[in-house]
Specification:
Elements: E1 6-11, H1 19-29, E2 35-40, H2 46-55, E3 62-65, H3 70-76, E4 79-80, H4 82-87, E5 92-96, E6 99-103, H5 106-117, E7 126-130, H6 134-146, E8 150-155, H7 158-165, E9 172-176, H8 180-184, E10 189-192, E11 216-219, H9 228-235, E12 240-241, H10 244-259, H11 267-279
Parallel strand pairs: 1-2, 1-3, 4-6, 7-8, 7-10, 8-9, 10-11, 11-12
Antiparallel strand pairs: 3-5, 5-6
Helix pairs in contact: 1-10, 1-11, 5-6, 5-10
Length: about 280
């Protein structure tokens, strides 16, 4: 008798993860005999966990990797695909013949969310990315891959923005916060990847109406669903896309890899996660 496939999300801490809700829903919806669980593994135990996963001792076909293990997964995987290699971090593991394969689906999730909720959002040429943390790498990589001619990275610490921009060649440029207003003017797309407004800091006032006609504003943060930037853009009449869809879509490739079926991101699964978010506040 074949053992049903089991997958996981691993992080530390892990109690906040909504991945079990997403994958659990898809397993149930499609009648798949399988499981998906959250694993709290401390940083000093992560290498040993990967060894158990590789050997088959852990009993998993693969899983998701979240903070703080995304970079450590790069050091422990046997086969790293080009996307994860470019970003220096991975979030999706699978085991094949005793070898661990790693990719990063964050950029895919970012693009798929926008494609679903704001078709045509990528017709412009210039994007503004606020923030230069780890998450911004996947976003900038996706924007460059999608064909934006210029991606302006704005960050409180401009040196950090320069480090990120240096990974992407002439399409990316680094700027300090004092340039934000002028950069937003005539931009085709704006995305917040920072914690501004959520970490006790003040949110800069932005005139989103100065962007080009048809411009879209998004945020990769999904808790809260309506971030300060999205509230401001919506009040100014611009189309907005929240960050929840990025979480939902980035889960699709892994589920297909582990369970053999490619699920759809529907309003049903979105509503399940929103209900969980609301129950925590």
């Amino acid at each position: 008798m074949t053992t049903p496939p089991a997958a996981f999300v691993v992080g530390h801490p892990i109690g906040h993860s909504r991945s079990p809700i997403i994958h659990g829903h898809w397993l149930k919806k499609h009648g798949i005999a399988g499981s998906y669980e959250a694993l709290d593994v401390a940083q000093h135990d992560f290498s040993g966990f990967l060894d158990r996963l590789r050997s088959g001792e852990a009993g998993f076909v693969g899983g998701n990797v979240t903070m703080p293990h995304k970079e450590a997964a790069m050091r422990g995987a046997d086969e790293i695909d080009p996307v994860a290699a470019r970003l220096g971090a991975g979030n999706t593991l699978w085991r094949v013949d005793g070898r661990l394969h790693l990719t990063n689906t964050d950029g895919y999730g970012f693009l798929a969310n926008l494609d679903q909720r704001a078709p045509g959002w990528d017709r412009g040429e210039r994007a503004v990315v606020l923030g230069a943390g780890g998450a911004s790498r996947a976003v900038i990589d996706a924007l460059v891959e999608r064909g934006f001619d210029r991606v302006d990275i704005v960050n409180r610490t401009v040196e950090r923005a320069r480090e990120i921009a240096g990974l992407f060649g002439p399409e990316a440029a680094a700027h300090g916060m004092e340039e934000l207003s002028s950069l937003v003017r005539s931009a085709d797309f704006f995305v917040n990847t920072s914690a501004l407004g959520l970490d006790g800091s003040d949110v800069p006032s932005i005139d989103f109406t100065s962007m080009r006609p048809g411009a879209v504003v998004t945020d990769i943060v999904y808790a809260p669903l309506m971030t300060p930037f999205l509230k401001e853009a919506k009040a100014q009449g611009l189309p907005i896309v929240d960050g929840l869809g990025m979480l939902l879509h980035q889960a699709v490739p892994g589920f297909e890899r582990w369970f053999g079926l490619r699920p759809d991101v529907t309003e049903e699964v979105r509503d399940l996660v929103i209900a969980d978010l609301e129950s925590k506040h």
